[in-house]
Amino acid sequence: MAFEGLSEKLGGVFKKLKSRGKLTEADVKTAMREVKMALLEADVSYKVVKDFVNKVTERSVGEEVLSSLTPAQQVIKIVNEELIALMGDGNAKINFPNKPPCVIMMCGLQGAGKTTHAAKLAKYFKNKEMKRPLLIAADVYRPAAIEQLKVVGAKAEVPVFEMGQIDPRKIVKEGLKHASDYGNDLVIIDTAGRLHIDEELMQELVDIKKIAQPNEIMLVVDAMIGQDAVKVASSFDEALGIDSVLLTKLDSDTRGGAALSVLSVTGKPIKFVGMGEKLDDFEKFHPERMASRILGMGDMLTLIERATSAIDHDDAERMAKKMQESGFDMEDLLENMEQIHKMGSMRSIIKLIPGASQVTDEQVEQGEVQLKKTKAMIQSMTKAERAKPSLIDPKRKRRIAAGSGTQVSDVNQLLRQFDQMQKMMKQFGLGGKNLHGKKARMNRAGMLKLMGGMPKK
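Above: the chain sequence. Below: its structure as tokens.
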């Protein structure tokens, strides 16, 4: 995951600060030297690092911070605020025109993920904002690019306009007419990329820009290329005039410097990020949430949003009613495990939970194995046993263990954990009256968090 190394190093710096109690100016400057090295190792631009550290140091050595009762917490607060400012105060949005369609022109180097992320973007607006998107296949050079867009477009349930491998200028012109004829209020143009920036590529993009008159030119950048991402963004902006950046592969083992450098160096905000291979592994870029993740504070708002979107409205109503009348049973546990799966991998969920930044990859892997075993054991139970676990006697335990490829001790552990979970669930108050409020969303997120982190024996 991006920023993992940076988060770990910053965590170490702040731990040292907290252990000192009162801080001196020298303590702060020593800590900032370590922060500087951590940011440079994360591939953040040197100029950005220098400015960032100077601002944090200047604010942190003030009398108000050093004489406070919790100076280390004050320094962390300042770092958090400056990280947010570095990535953009406020959340940049796509400005939709009063008269549709809104035209978004995607551009970038080959291999950055333009085609897949064009479909991700289309699906996002289709599902989140009820738009009627159209994808235009204007990449006529890369082998199978048109076919790839048709495949991902079908998965996103978004129509694709293509005319084969003819002049992309004509394709865009006809695609816009098609959108007008069929009432598409959002048009996303997938343009061609190159292995490097060249004159021919830029001229073609400039021509397409003149034809399409896009409301947004979005540069797709691979986070894995580090500081080169900033150079790419600057080159495209100079030739084309980009409006925003979509950062891909932020889930990879990358140092993440691009996310911290792009806005500062180019003045162009990151509006969306791709976090994985699935079409739903895609989200709006929230600077304050990303800063929270970098500092190991988790990201509960994103976790809540994922939980809310993963739980079907009618299913939530039914479950709330059932819990009020008869409580929480193994069938509900199985259903919630399926909902966790919809939210993403356990690894991606855990990174959003405050205080979970120290969880190792090995622990995550153990947790995923445990979830699979738990699911297998529940699926080996009869409906009566799922509804009333107290029916499970030694003979039934042996049958469940054999059917799920586990041990009787695993079944005993599950039953103990489930008993603890039933008691804890009462604290979440999943009543029907509060089902649609903010509190209810928090409760559902908390429930899913609990399902993903069942206590180990």
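Residues 123 and 129 are 10 Å apart (CA to CA).
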